[in-house]
């Protein structure tokens, strides 16, 4: 079972523990003081969330009454709360408290989404989060192992 969402956000890759010169060298044009934006999305199976892959198929069964593993309406609401409300059309560095001290890389965006969904979904259901920053840049996060 998978569901996709697309959200738009801007950010600046900048570490407070580095000098301005070191930040520019490390992050290049992504260190622009005015930031830059992305439409975070996916094209293949999913943009943000993949649920119920091999490990999940083992631990969950289809409900015999509903015929579903999970109600997609519930999943949509969880994704709205964990992804769209905090991130869509936001400046990640200025509007999302999580990124006040964490560099807003796509890797850290995936962690943020994972943590938000983990709080909402039934335990053990989330298999991985997949975030497409661009056509070429994709991050897959499976939580801490």
UniProtKB/TrEMBL annotation:
PROSITE patterns: PTPS_1, PTPS_2. Its cofactor is Zn(2+). Pfam families: PTPS (PF01242). Its EC number is 4.2.3.12. InterPro entries: 6-PTP_synth/QueD, 6-PTP_synth/QueD_sf, PTPS_Cys_AS, PTPS_His_AS. One of its GO terms (biological process) is tetrahydrobiopterin biosynthetic process. Keywords: Lyase, Metal-binding, Tetrahydrobiopterin biosynthesis, Zinc. GO terms for molecular function: 6-pyruvoyltetrahydropterin synthase activity; metal ion binding. It is an enzyme of class 4 (lyase). One of its GO terms (cellular component) is mitochondrion. Pathway: Cofactor biosynthesis; tetrahydrobiopterin biosynthesis; tetrahydrobiopterin from 7,8-dihydroneopterin triphosphate: step 1/3. Belongs to the PTPS family. Involved in the biosynthesis of tetrahydrobiopterin, an essential cofactor of aromatic amino acid hydroxylases. Catalyzes the transformation of 7,8-dihydroneopterin triphosphate into 6-pyruvoyl tetrahydropterin. This is 6-pyruvoyl tetrahydrobiopterin synthase. It comes from Manacus vitellinus (golden-collared manakin).
């Amino acid at each position: 079972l998978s569901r996709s969402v697309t959200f738009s956000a801007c950010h600046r890759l900048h570490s407070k523990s580095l000098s301005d010169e070191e930040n520019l060298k490390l992050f290049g044009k992504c260190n622009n003081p005015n930031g830059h934006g992305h439409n975070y999305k996916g094209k293949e199976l999913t943009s943000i969330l993949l649920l119920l892959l091999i490990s999940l198929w083992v631990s969950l069964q289809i409900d015999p009454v509903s015929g579903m593993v999970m109600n997609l309406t519930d999943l949509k609401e969880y994704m709205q709360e964990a992804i769209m409300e905090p991130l869509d059309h936001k400046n990640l560095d200025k509007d999302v408290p999580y990124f006040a001290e964490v560099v807003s890389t796509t890797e850290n965006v995936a962690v943020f989404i994972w943590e938000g969904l983990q709080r909402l979904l039934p335990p053990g259901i989330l298999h991985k989060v997949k975030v497409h920053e661009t056509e070429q840049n994709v991050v897959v996060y499976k939580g801490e192992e």
